[in-house]
Amino acid sequence: MAKKEMLDSIRSRWLIIFAIVFAVLALIIAGLGMSGLGLGGYEGFNRVTAGLLNLVLYLLPLISLVMGASSIAGEREGGSLHVLLTQPIHKSEIILGKFLGLSLSLITALLIGFGGAGLIMALRSGLMNVKDYLVFVLLSVILVLVFLSLAILISVLSSKRSQALGLGIFVWFVLILVYDFMAIGVASLSNANVVVPLLLLLLLLNPADMVRVLVILQLGGEATFGPTLAALTRTVSHGAGQGLLFGILLVWIIVPLVLAYLFFKRKQDY
Predict the structure, then answer these.
(1) Residues 41 and 128 sit within 8 Å (Cβ to Cβ)
(2) The domain containing residue 121 runs over which residues?
(3) pLDDT 10s digits, 195-232
(4) Gap between the Cα atoms of 54 and 224, Å rounded
(5) Based on the structure, what is the number of domains in the chain?
(6) Contact 98/72 with Cβ under 8 angstroms?
(7) Nearest-CA neighbor of 211 among 55, 57, 52, 45?
C-alpha cells in the first residue's frame, strides 16, 4: 500500500509543484540570507532559518492537507476504493500504507529543498551550525507528519474529494492564519496568571505553533516572545518543557491516525 501510494504521489501534479516551489523558495531565501545581505556565520544562519521557518509553517501544512485529504476520499469517489477493499487487505493497512507512502513522498521533496539551502549555508558558514539545521529539518518533517495525519482523518470522514479539500483548507486557515490572532488577543490580557496558562493551552492545541516555538528556542531567540511571554518561555525552554512539546507532537501524529482507522473500519458505504 505504501509503495502504491508513493508511486501515485510521484505522478501527482501537487507533489511536483510543491517540490519545485519549495526548492526554489528555499534556495532564494538561503541565497539572500547568506550572500545578498552580506551575512555569514551564526547571524546569517539564524536569518536564513527564520526565513525558512516562515516558508515551512505556511507551505508544509497546506500541501500535506491537500494531498492527504484527497487520498481516501478521491479513491472512494472514483470507485477504486471499493475494488481495493475486495482484496485480502486489512483496513488498518490501507490507512497506514497511505500515510507512509504520502509521508515518504513529501519528505523526499522536502529534503531536496532543504539539501540545496543547507549546501548554500555550509559554503558560507561551514558546518558550525549543522546540528541546529538538522533539528530544524527534523521539526519540519514532524510538521508534515502531523498535518498528514490530520488530512487522512479528514479524508476518511469526507464522502467526496471536493469536501475533503474544502475541510483541509479550512483547517489550514484556522490553525495557520486565524489561530495567531487568538494568541495575540490572549497575550494582550493584563493578568499574567491567566495569560501564561491560556497561552500554554493554545500552544499545545496547535502543532504549527509548537514547531515554531521549538525552532525559536533551538536558535536561542527566546527574546522573540517578548516580555509578556517571558514566563511561558521559561516554562518550555528547559529540557522537560521541550520534551513535553515533542511528546504532544507525537500524540498529534498518532491520535488522528487511530481515529481515522476507527471511522474507516465502521464505514460501509464504499
Answers:
(1) yes
(2) 2-266
(3) 777 777 888 889 998 898 888 877 765 544 554 455 55
(4) 14
(5) 1
(6) yes
(7) 57
pLDDT single digits (tens) 127-162: 667 788 888 999 999 999 999 999 999 999 998 889
| CA dihedral (25, 28, 30, 33) positive or negative | negative
- In the prediction, which pLDDT does 190 show? 60
Do 215 and 136 form a contact (C-beta atoms < 8 A)? yes
Whether the CB-CB separation of 30 and 127 falls below 8 Å is answered with no
> At residue 237, what is the residue type?
S
| Model pLDDT for residues 165-186, shown as the tens digit of each residue | 999 999 999 999 888 777 777 7
Q: Are 143 and 56 in contact (CB under 8 A)?
A: yes
